[in-house]
Automatic annotation (TrEMBL):
Domain (Xylose isomerase-like TIM barrel) ranges: 21-270
Gene3D superfamilies for the chain: Divalent-metal-dependent TIM barrel enzymes
Superkingdom in the source lineage: Bacteria
SUPFAM superfamilies assigned to the protein according to its UniProt record, in alphabetical order: Xylose isomerase-like (SSF51658)
Organism: Halomonas huangheensis
The protein's name in its UniProt record: Xylose isomerase-like TIM barrel domain-containing protein
C-alpha cells in the first residue's frame, strides 16, 4: 500500500494534545500536520517555532506517530514569501517532515514567484525539505490550476526541490467545468503526493464529507494511487465549507470530537474496503 497520512485539518478547533491522541485512537500513525490559513483557527508565523515543533514531535513519538508531510499553504508570489517559507521549512524539519505543501502563486504575482524561485529553493534545500506545490480551490487563477499546468510550471523550477501535491477535491470548486477524476488521473505520473479530499456540491456551495460520500469517484483514484505506490493524505476538513464563489468559511464552533472520530473511522474503513 502507498504511504497514507491523515491531515490534522479534520480537527480544526482542538489542541494538538487532543488531536494526536484522537488520531492514535483511530489507528493513525502517519500524521500530516496542518497549519493552513483559513482552514484552521488563526495562528501566526511566530507560532511555528522550533520549540513548538519539538514538542509536537515528542508528542507524536509518544503515540507511535510520525510526520512526513507538513501543510503550510501560502502564496509564494507574495513579497514576504521567502521569510514565511523559511518559518515553514524550519518547522517541518524540526517535526521530522521532508515535504512542505504550499500553493504556487496566483497569476497576479506569478512573475515575482518565478523571480525568487531560486531563493525559495535555497531555503528548502538548507532545511532538507522539498516544496510540494498544490492546486488551489478558491477560483483565483493560479500558476497551477489543473494537471495540464504541471509540466510547464516544473520546467521553470529546480526539480530537486520543487514537486507537486495534487488535490483533486479542490478541482470541484476551482474548475467546476472540469472532470476532476480525469484531471486527477492525468496528474498521477507527475505528482509526488496527492490529497484525497472528498466533497460535494450543495445548494449554497460545497461541503466536505467522509470518504465515499462525495461527488468525485475517490475509490477509482485511491486504487490508482495504490497501484502506482503514490503517497497520499486524507484531508478531511469537516468544519470547512465553500460558498458559491468557492470562498472558504468555517462553522462557528468546532465539531464534537466524537463526531470527528466517527467520520474519520468511517473514512478509514471505507478506504480499507476499497483497497482490499
Amino acid at each position: 500500500m502507498s504511504l497514507v497520512s491523515v491531515s490534522t485539518a479534520a480537527y480544526d478547533g482542538y489542541g494538538f494534545d487532543v488531536i494526536l491522541a484522537s488520531l492514535a485512537r483511530c489507528g493513525v500513525r502517519n500524521v500530516e500536520i496542518a497549519f493552513i490559513e483559513g482552514y484552521v483557527e488563526a495562528f501566526t508565523d511566530e507560532d511555528l517555532s522550533k520549540r513548538y515543533a519539538a514538542e509536537l514531535r515528542e508528542e507524536m513519538q509518544r503515540h507511535g506517530q510520525q510526520c512526513h508531510y507538513f501543510s503550510g499553504h501560502i502564496d509564494l508570489g507574495q513579497q514576504d514569501a521567502p521569510q514565511r517559507l523559511e518559518a515553514r521549512c524550519r518547522f517541518a524539519a524540526e517535526l521530522g517532515a521532508k515535504h512542505v505543501i504550499t500553493n504556487a502563486a496566483s497569476l497576479t504575482v506569478s512573475e515575482q514567484f518565478l523571480a525568487h524561485a531560486g531563493e525559495l529553493a535555497a531555503i528548502a534545500g538548507h532545511h532538507g525539505v522539498r516544496i510540494l506545490l498544490e492546486n488551489p480551490g478558491n477560483r483565483d487563477p493560479n500558476l497551477l490550476d489543473r494537471a495540464a499546468h504541471i509540466e510547464p510550471l516544473l520546467a521553470q523550477l529546480d526539480s530537486d526541490v520543487f514537486g507537486i501535491n495534487f488535490d483533486v477535491g479542490n478541482l470541484l470548486s476551482h474548475c467546476p467545468d472540469l472532470d476532476p477524476l480525469a484531471d486527477g488521473l492525468q496528474a498521477l505520473s507527475q505528482a509526488d503526493h496527492f490529497h484525497i479530499k472528498p466533497c460535494r456540491v450543495v445548494p449554497d456551495g460545497y461541503d466536505f464529507t467522509p470518504l465515499g460520500e462525495g461527488d468525485i469517484d475517490d475509490a477509482c483514484l485511491v486504487r490508482h494511487l495504490d497501484a502506482r505506490n503514490v503517497p497520499f493524505s486524507l484531508e478531511l476538513p469537516f468544519r470547512l465549507h465553500r460558498d458559491l464563489d468557492a470562498q472558504p468559511w468555517r462553522d462557528n464552533s468546532p465539531l464534537t470530537l466524537d463526531h470527528i472520530e466517527r467520520q474519520l473511522k468511517q473514512s478509514l474503513a471505507w478506504m480499507s474496503d476499497i483497497l482490499s
